[in-house]
Amino acid sequence: MKSIITALAFSLVLVSCNKEEKKRKGVDYNAAKAELALTAEQEKSYDEVVAKYAKIAEESKAAATDGAKPDRVEMFKKMEERNVQQTADMAAFLNEAQLQKYSDFVAKNSRKRPRYDDALLAKIKTDLALDEQQAKMLEAANNAFEKAYQDAHDLYHGNGELAKEYWDKYDAERKNAMKQVLSEEQNTAFLELVKGQKPAAKK
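-> structure tokens emitted (203 positions)
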């Protein structure tokens, strides 16, 4: 009986580890490749690009976690930059349709920075006709939100409900900062534009 319990416990540990490993892997580029109908030459180039950036990612992660607590904001920035650079490399040999499929796959499956993205920031600035001071506050409040949420990561990691609590807390602060510099009409429009923002779902 004891051996059965031990075996079950070990199995649960393995399942847990496998799930955690899957979470950490990020984009499955082999799955993406399967959707692209690559030629043999394209596949060779594709694998080379994936290997190149996987190595860069590992080196970047090792440097970020060497000693001091990693700066998650900076890590996510670098991840975004790598994705852009990797897509540019893919564009050298993928046709337009393949590149669109690849880009869509990466956008859907890559981890997102917890913040208003560049497209939303641009839309807020344009739709609300923000002046220079308001635009600076938008950037500052958004950056402060991202840093606060990322800095709290160790506290809510693995707990979706707690993550949402932290998100809501810092999001309220972000919105309050904007309220101080927006007109009532602008603030109403701002809240409408950002109402769909929420923590990324755990995969």
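The chain is about 75% helix and 0% strand.
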